[in-house]
Design brief:
Blueprint (H helix, E strand, L loop, with lengths): L2 H50 L12 E4 L6 E9 L2 E14 L2 E10 L4 E8 L13 H4 L28 H22 L6
Antiparallel strand pairs: 1-2, 2-3, 3-4, 4-5
Length: 196
C-alpha cells in the first residue's frame, strides 16, 4: 500500500470509528433518558388535566381515548374525569399551528353540558410577556362557562365573543382555534360519529 493511500485511509477510518461510537453513545443516551422524559411529559399533562376538569376519583390518564374531529382530519386525545363512576367532565388535548411562535398545545376541560370549564396552554413558543399572556387568568376566565354551541369562539376583531390579549391577537386566535378543534371533536364524539 502506498504512502499516499495510507495518508488518506487512516483519517477516514478514524473518522468512521468516531462517528460509529458517537452514534452508539447517542442511541444509548436516548434510550436511557426516554422513560424519564416521557414520565415528566405525562406528569405535566396530568397536572393540566387536574386544572381543567371537575373533581375526579378515577385516573383520566389511564382511561384516555382517541377521538376524531367531524372532518376526520384530526385525532385528539380525550381524558374522562369521573366521580363515583359518573362522568363529570372531560379534558381534551388539542393544538393549533397558527401561533405567532408556531404550534400551541392546549388542554381544554369541558363540562358534560358542552360548556368550557377551563383551559391550560401546555406547550407554546409565544413571545414571553405578550403571546404567553394567553395562559393568564384575565384571558382564560372569559372562557369559563363559555358555550361554544351558543357563543362565537373567536376574538372580537373577527366577530366573536372573546377579547384578545392586547398586542397578542395572533396568539389569542391560535388558542381559540385549538379550543374550537377540541370542541369539534368533543361534539363529534357526543354525536356518536367518531369512526375513523
Amino acid at each position: 500500500m502506498s504512502k499516499r493511500i495510507k495518508e488518506f485511509l487512516v483519517p477516514v477510518i478514524t473518522l468512521v470509528i468516531i462517528v460509529t461510537l458517537s452514534a452508539f453513545a447517542l442511541g444509548y443516551m436516548y434510550n436511557f433518558t426516554f422513560e424519564a422524559i416521557q414520565k415528566a411529559k405525562d406528569a405535566k399533562e396530568l397536572e393540566a388535566i387536574s386544572e381543567v376538569v371537575n373533581e375526579f376519583d378515577n385516573n383520566p390518564f389511564a382511561e384516555k381515548t382517541t377521538i376524531m374531529t367531524k372532518d376526520k382530519k384530526d385525532k385528539l386525545i380525550m381524558y374522562p374525569a369521573r366521580k363515583g363512576g359518573k362522568l363529570t367532565s372531560v379534558a381534551i388535548k388539542s393544538y393549533s399551528n397558527a401561533g405567532f411562535g408556531g404550534r400551541i398545545e392546549v388542554m381544554t376541560g369541558f363540562n358534560v353540558s358542552g360548556s368550557i370549564k377551563y383551559f391550560k396552554v401546555i406547550s407554546s413558543n409565544e413571545t414571553p410577556g405578550l403571546g404567553s399572556k394567553v395562559d393568564e387568568p384575565k384571558f382564560k376566565e372569559q372562557l369559563t362557562d363559555f358555550y361554544p354551541h351558543r357563543q362565537i369562539l373567536k376574538v372580537k376583531q373577527d366577530g366573536g365573543d372573546v377579547d384578545a390579549v392586547t398586542a397578542a391577537t395572533i396568539s389569542s386566535r391560535a388558542v381559540l382555534k385549538a379550543i374550537a378543534r377540541a370542541y369539534d371533536a368533543f361534539s363529534n364524539f357526543n354525536s356518536g360519529d367518531n369512526n375513523e
